[in-house]
Amino acid sequence: MEKLSKKEWVAVAVAIIFVGYTLFGGNIMSLFNKSSSMDQNSLPAATGASSSGVVINDITVGQGAEVRNGQLLSVNYILSLSDGTVIQNSKDFGQPFEFTLGAGEVIQGWERGFAGMKIGGVRTVIIPPDLGYGAAQSGPIPPNSTLIFTIELLGATDVAPQPVQ
Q1: Does 51 reside within a domain?
Q2: Domain count across the chain
Q3: Contacts of 109 by beta carbon, 8 Å cutoff, 6+ apart
Q4: Residue 98 clears pLDDT 90, i.e. is over it
Q5: pTM for the whole structure
Q6: Helix (H, G, I), strand (E, B) or coil at 159
Q7: Which of 9, 13, 114, 131 has the greatest number of beta carbons closer than 10 A?
Q8: Rounded distance between C-alpha atoms, residue 12 and residue 18, angstroms
Q9: Which one-letter DSSP state was computed for residue 108?
Q10: Which of 163, 40, 159 is nearest to 102 (CA)?
């Protein structure tokens, strides 16, 4: 077994910190907050597995309206794997990603990860392989990968129903 170089150790440390922050979000910093008075906005956000099969950790609960199926959502996101490898950052494309919630345009776990989310919110959604790409490889995503999305919900607009042709 080869010894790791200094650069490799730094890369490992950064990956561990990134995964820790992704999983626990800004809530971990509240452990170091010396303020004894807490208002409703400073309480830790909801965390945990949902009945939908995804794990949701609200880093910041949005102050806007809760999203609904059929709305066009505008989001920024970072997709990483459970080993900390960042696969994609939507900001690299120069514009937010948009999709219609509930229309089947994205993987099941992504759809389920927006349940109860409010505009302006930031959350981490951990998606098991069966709600992601499963046993198939999708671009740089290996088969049977657990996906970790950090999502910022920028906006939601109602979409006019399309007539059936």
Answers
A1: yes
A2: 1
A3: 53, 54, 125, 127, 128, 131, 132, 147
A4: yes
A5: 0.68
A6: coil
A7: 114
A8: 10
A9: H
A10: 159
